[in-house]
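Title: Comparing notes on inverse folding

I've been comparing how different people in this forum approach sequence design from structure. To keep things fair, I'm posting one structure and asking everyone to reply with a full sequence. Here's the target:
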């Protein structure tokens, strides 16, 4: 076993952060030392985590929770920072591994900070990969660090490739999707889908935003873009299969007809553990599979007519430049509006398509961002346009 490694978790009170701390606890003493934690608003849970894992430093994005956090941690010697730059300050502190699990564009700068200083960046932040994935990869290589994806599908591909670049003979990378709660719904039913319907995921227990993305299949579309950024397989070498059991998380096909598949329980602790311990393993990180009990594994092609978000993501990937960042930002605002009951379920993809069309004439549209600041500027422009379309 390797020597103890220090760990920073950005977004420790979210579902990924909570699961990561469970993995740390399961790994036993001497494997990881939690050195820093950051959270957005949940001061109470952050304090509980800090009291249990005793990091050197904690950060809270929302200044309104600072007084309560300081009161709970008084006398512990734990350093505290609060405010909008607190997560970036957390990422800049020394540690071997940074788990980036902040949702949204707010996670972009902290992720880049970790990449620039040479840490292992275990990244679960879609926005950072979609808007600045190649920038992160270049920064990590230049600093002697590495980027390991945490999403179950991308982590599966990373493991199938054994952490190496795509080699000769690869035909296609295939990501699987559960199909979400609406896999068998008709177009008429989808038109009347409510937030509470979309939030009933049949397999995964996730946050609200990603659960809605699973229902629209935008989550899989965003993951196609991430896979292109992370693995650079080449044009036309990315595919999607609907797999309701969520046991096979990713496949790689070779031109000799061989197909390698990664299987595991639908439990985020498995890819988190693999990201933190790679190339080693953490025993007991997630449940073992009982394939006899599961009995069958089903696969089907995605329906891009009922679920146009997947088509929009493919088109954004093909367009390149800033289209993926625009798609991502517009979708985030549209999902927020759906959860607030200001728009219908089918309006999510419609608004994303309208924002992409509106910004396609921008002279910067075809150019990929050359710095995080440019990526954030594109993100804000797309959000502003989407806000205007969802105001009500």
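Reply #1:
Here's my take.
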């Amino acid at each position: 076993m390797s020597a103890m490694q220090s760990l920073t978790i950005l977004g420790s009170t979210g579902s990924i952060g909570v699961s990561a701390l469970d993995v740390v606890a399961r790994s036993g003493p001497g494997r990881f030392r939690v050195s820093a934690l950051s959270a957005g608003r949940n001061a109470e849970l952050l304090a509980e985590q800090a009291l249990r894992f005793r990091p050197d430093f904690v950060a809270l994005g929302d200044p309104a929770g600072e007084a309560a956090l300081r009161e709970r941690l008084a006398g512990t010697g734990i350093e505290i920072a609060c405010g909008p730059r607190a997560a970036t300050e957390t990422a800049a502190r020394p540690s071997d591994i940074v788990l980036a699990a902040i949702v949204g564009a707010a996670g972009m700068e902290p992720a880049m900070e970790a990449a620039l200083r040479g840490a292992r960046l275990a990244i679960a932040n879609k926005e950072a990969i979609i808007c600045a994935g190649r920038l992160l990869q270049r920064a990590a290589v230049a600093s002697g660090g590495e980027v390991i994806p945490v999403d179950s599908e991308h982590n599966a591909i990373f493991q199938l490739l054994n952490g190496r670049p795509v080699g000769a003979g690869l035909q296609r990378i295939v990501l699987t999707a559960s199909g979400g709660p609406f896999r068998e719904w008709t177009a008429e039913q989808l038109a009347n889908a409510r937030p509470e319907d979309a939030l009933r995921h049949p397999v995964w227990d996730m946050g609200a935003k990603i659960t809605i993305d699973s229902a629209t299949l935008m989550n899989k579309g965003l993951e196609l873009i991430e896979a292109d950024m992370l693995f650079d397989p080449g044009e036309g070498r990315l595919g999607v299969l609907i797999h309701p059991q969520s046991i096979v998380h990713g496949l790689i096909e070779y031109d000799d007809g061989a197909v390698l598949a990664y299987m595991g329980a639908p439990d985020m602790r498995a890819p988190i553990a693999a990201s933190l311990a790679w190339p080693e393993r953490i025993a007991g990180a997630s449940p073992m599979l009982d394939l006899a009990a599961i009995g069958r594994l089903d696969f089907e092609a995605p329906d891009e007519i009922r679920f146009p978000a997947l088509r929009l993501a493919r088109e954004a990937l093909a367009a390149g430049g800033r289209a993926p960042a625009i798609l991502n930002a517009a979708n985030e605002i549209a999902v927020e509006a759906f959860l607030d009951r200001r728009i219908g379920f089918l309006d999510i993809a419609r608004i994303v398509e309208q924002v992409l069309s509106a910004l396609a004439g921008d002279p910067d549209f075809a150019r990929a961002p050359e710095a995080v600041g440019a990526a954030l500027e594109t993100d804000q422009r797309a959000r502003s346009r989407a806000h205007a379309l969802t105001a009500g």
